[in-house]
Amino acid sequence: MTVIDHNAALARAGANVTGWWSRTLFFARRYPLGAVGAVIVAAFVFTAVFADVIAPVDPTATNAKYSLAPPSSMFWLGADFMGRDMYSRIIHGARVSLAVGAGAMGLGCVLGIAIGLASGYLSGWVDLALQRLMDIMQALPLLVLAIIMAASLGPSLRNTIFAIAIPLVPSVARVVRSSTLSLRELPFVEAARAVGMGELRIAVRHVLPNTLAPLIVLATAQLGSAILVEASLSFLGLGVPEPHPSWGRMLSESAAEYVRTAPWLVIWPGVAISLTVFGTNLLGDALRDLLDPRQRS
């Protein structure tokens, strides 16, 4: 009996691996640009997780002897004006940028889901009050509101995440609210009420899971926006402070003074930011087509 159970478990595991692999191949064939975006995002996530192993030296270690050293066998991507290895700083910058982007996206989604679900499910004066608050927040562009928040809170890693997360809330709340308004009138919600289920349980257990498909697409797009806003805030001196290596701060320190004498100080942070945002946008577009039947050809 044990042998049979063991063989059955192996068969199920093999079927799961085969199914996962077939779905991956289908996604790559059907959405090749989305697969390219997924590879780019996965590469940056891997770089961020294993930055301490991949980076050859400490990204904050300075050496005036090698100030503005060009790319060579010692400094693969050159050195900055303080003699810090640009390759190590780019690698560790991925950790900072992805941590800020993912943290801001996660916090913004949590707050937006709570507001959108309450607004759409309760309706009435709750919906009116919450939506007017969202209108006020959306009156300012994302970057402008993030600059105001960051300037008010001060430069730090935690404050940067919070400053970027708050402007992301209205878009999440709108998406969740619109889905909730249509779902709350469906028969399965009426059936849950008929069996005596509480309103909070209905909203969380039955309505919320059905709003996740468009939310996943929005969250992927917001990840790229959050990374770009973090780079903009750091460029303006309002984002992640030293000694944390940030791509935006690298540009801020080098763009004006060293763009002609040491162009590698500007090129590599710009390439890293562009690739990350490009990859998340490609992945988000593919997920939109995959999860929304109206977008499928």
Would you kindly provide a written description of the structure presented here, covering whatever features stand out?
- With 297 residues, this protein is mostly helical.
- The protein folds into 2 domains: 1-30; 31-295, MetI-like fold (Orthogonal Bundle).
- Helix content is 75%, strand content 0%.
- It is built from 12 helices and no strands.
- The chain has helices at residues 2-30, 32-49, 51-54, 86-122, 124-138, 142-153, 157-183, 187-194, 199-207, 212-235, 247-258, 264-291.
Number of domains: 2
Q: What is the second-level CATH architecture of the largest domain? A: Orthogonal Bundle
Q: Strand-and-helix sequence, N→C?
A: HHHHHHHHHHHH
The mean pLDDT is 82
Largest sheet: none
Range of strand content: under 5%
* CATH 4th-level superfamily of the largest domain: MetI-like
Kindly provide the radius of gyration, computed on alpha-carbon positions and rounded to a whole number of angstroms: 23 Å
Q: Into which percent range does the helicity of residues fall?
A: over 70%
Low-confidence stretches: none
Transmembrane segments: 31-51, 96-121, 133-153, 215-241, 261-284
Membrane topology: Multi-pass membrane protein
Protein name: Peptide/nickel transport system permease protein
Pfam families: BPD_transp_1, OppC_N
